Amino acid sequence: MRPSLSGGVLRYAVSIFVVAVFMFPLFWWGLSSIKPRSAIFDKDRVVFFDFVPTGINYAVTLLGQSRSEAATAAGDTFGVGGASSYDSRQTIIDSIVVAVGSTALTMLLAVFAAYALSRFAFRGRQAYLGWVLSQRFMPPVAIIVPIVFMFHFLGLRDTLGGLIVIDSLINLPIAVLLMKSFFDDVPRDIDEAAMIDGATRLQTFARAVLPMVRGGIAATAVLCFIFSWTEFLLSLFLTNSIRTLPVKITTFVTSTGSEWGFIAALGTSAIVPSFIFILLVQKQLVRGLTFGSVKE
Amino acid sequence: MRGRADEPGGKAMTAVAVGGSVARRPGLPRFLTSEHPLPWLLPSTAMMVVFGVYPLLYAIWLSLHKRNPVTRLSPFNPTWNWAKLFSDERVWGAIGHTFLYTAVAIVIELVLGMLIALLLDSDRRGYGLLRALMTLPLVVPPAVTGMMFLLMLDGSFGVLSRGLYATGLLSPETPILARASTAFFGVLLADIWQWTPFMVLIMLAGLRALPKDPFEAAAIDGASAAQAFFRLTLPLMSRIIALAVLIRGVDLFRIYDYVKVMTDGGPGTATETLTAYAGTIYFKNADFPYASTVALLTLILLIVTANIFIKIFRVRF
To answer: Are the C-beta atoms of B191 and B147 separated by less than 8 Å?
Structure first.
């Protein structure tokens, strides 16, 4: 399977080329975020570095500078005006609250269920696991209309709490299955030793087993955070005034023209946290994407 | 799920017994103590029943009502929406788009993913970084991915469009997302960019777990690399490939974000998938019962297709 040495350089060159192709959209996106408006929309200047970099797009979306002020300051009177709100500071705070909140809630619920599924032998255990898996496979669109009605009734519509609940629901099956696979990796002797020493199940779980799956908890939590951070459909249906980042970005597309500079700036800001987090859990990524059934 | 790790077997049973006999608080029935799985499973089960199962039953109940757009009331009429599905050409179009989209994307992503995995499966220096970079597209919010490709495919100033015009594949008069026959590929491009890395990662994990012996034996017997791949690598990786296809297939089948962001089902209804159509009925017509019916149809088709796949390829988790 391993190729001969002579092919080594060529293979590496091809590998770099393939990865570069996949990196290009990210590069282009980042580049567009520091382009002045005129350079983005000029069809004859679609060249890589034919522009003076600007921070305007970030100043407007992340620092709340007004759009016309920013344009005037840059000596760019093109497209000044328009009442749309591009200030996304509240959006970012809301997105962080939802992602952190739902991750915490998901993990809190998941570790207990996962431990039980890993350690107890009971009738219907396989069926329960199958049911959890089927929850992951259910298209959110199938339940979204009733969820909107329910949330309206419960006062959760268009609230951060509502988004936290629904993102937790979506993440819960993955978190349970993934945490179960991490608990399965811990030898049962640990439990038995603790219980022979007189610990209850709960004490065994909290003091002996839980510390041993810290890495798994971190990896699962990171994945939950990313799923919640990137979630689009449910936020779109369940909110009007509160906007998470993916939904907010799409509101910058209007029938009279899209503010690509602002979109790219906010989009780049939305990607960066995910990138940092994902590099932390590289080793557990495959396991996370297959709900614990493929280990690297 | 897989293998022995899932069978708690005798050891766990004794552990339960030991734990139970050592520390049972008097007064509480056993199924309410931590020695019984019930209290452990209750919170997450409650969550999934209240916000997962109940809404699903509610959606079924909703689909049995006919909405009157004038009075805004929805009296009970159990066959109305389900009969409407069959006469609604947009539903049939959406079913076709959904299956076509899923099948084309899966094949391309699987083949590309396998090729790239074979390419990057090396212990030499530099490959680790390339593998890490390949994971980045996975965590971009899909809505943002849609926007990225919307920008790059813009008919006037999009960098990919300019590239396509330069090669003569498309002309500026017919931007890729504006034409019914090509918009499909525009949306597909975003999906392929984002999810080929998923296949790469899983195939890499599969390749790394392959046993060495059969390949050494094949090399001694003078088998070519292609023979080794088709006779050994593919069969040995069949479980993991089937699993990856199932997971990806389910997600593709309920595709929403790219379609909503990039074309909103258009031009016309050329890229309208089932979930996109359900969304349109919800947002534009406010016909909640019918939106639920279309969403349930998506679920039914998904369950049937996934189960046929699981049966044929004997997928195990």
So the answer is: no
Contact A18 B225 (CB under 8 A): no
Q: How confident is the model at residue A5 (pLDDT cuts 50, 70, 90)?
A: low
Query: Which residues in chain A are closer than 8 Å to B295, comparing Cβ atoms?
Result: 139, 141-145
Report phi then psi at B76, rounded to 5.
-65, 125
Chain B positions touching A143 (Cβ under 8 A) are 51-52, 55-56, 59, 295
How confident is the model over B43-96, as pLDDT tens digits? 999 999 999 999 999 999 999 998 887 777 788 888 889 999 999 999 999 999
Q: Is residue B15 part of a domain?
A: no
Query: In this complex, which of B18, B37, B149 lies closest to A195 when CB atoms are compared?
Result: B18
- Residue B141, domain extent: 88-313
Q: Characterize A129-159 residue by residue with b for buried, 16 or more Cβ atoms within 10 angstroms of its Cβ, and e for exposed.
A: beebbebbbbbbbbbbbbbbbbbeeeebbeb
Cβ–Cβ below 8 Å for B19 and A201: yes
Asked if residue B55 has a cis previous peptide bond (ω within 30° of 0), the answer is: no
Chain A: residue whose CA lies nearest to B240? A294
Q: Tell me which of B139, B201, B224, B243 to substitute to probe the interface with A (most A C-beta atoms closer than 10 Å).
A: B139
Minimal Cα–Cα distance from B143 to chain A, Å?
Answer: 6
The CATH number of residue B270's host domain is 1.10.3720.10
- Asked if A294's CB is within 8 angstroms of B206's CB, the reply is yes
Answer whether B15 sits within 8 Å of A274, measured CB to CB. Answer: no
Search chain B and give the residue with CA nearest A292. Answer: B317
How far is B114 from B121, CA to CA, in rounded Å? 10
- What the block records as the tokens of A26 is 């990210």
Range from A32-41, A133-142, A175-184 carrying the lowest mean pLDDT: A32-41
Contact B142 A28 (CB under 8 A): no
**What pLDDT digit, counting tens, does each position of A269-294 carry?**
999 988 988 888 888 888 888 888 88
**Domains of chain A, CATH where assigned:** 5-73 (no CATH), 89-289 (1.10.3720.10)
Asked whether residue B60 is domain-assigned, the answer is no
Tell me what pLDDT residue A74 has. Answer: 61
Cα(A190)–Cα(A212) distance, rounded to whole angstroms?
10
Q: Do B8 and A128 touch (CB under 8 A)?
A: no
| Residue A53, pLDDT score | 83
Give the minimum alpha-carbon distance from A89 to chain B in angstroms, rounded to a whole number: 18
Q: What is the pLDDT of residues A94-128, one digit of tens each?
A: 999 999 999 999 999 999 999 999 999 999 999 99
Contact assignment for B208 to A168 by CB distance below 8 Å: no
The answer, yes or no, to whether residue A207 has pLDDT greater than 70, is yes
**Domain total of chain B:** 1
- Is residue B17 included in any domain, yes or no? no
- pLDDT confidence bin for A35, thresholds 50/70/90: confident
- Secondary structure (DSSP) of B74-93: --B-TTHHHHHHHH-HHHHH
Angle between helices B180-208 and B127-134 in degrees, nearest 10: 130
- Whether A18 and B116 lie within 8 Å, measured CB to CB: yes
Cα–Cα distance measured from residue A175 to residue A109, given in angstroms and rounded to the nearest whole number: 9
User: Is the pLDDT confidence value at B246 over 90?
Assistant: yes
**Does the residue B54 lie in any domain?**
no
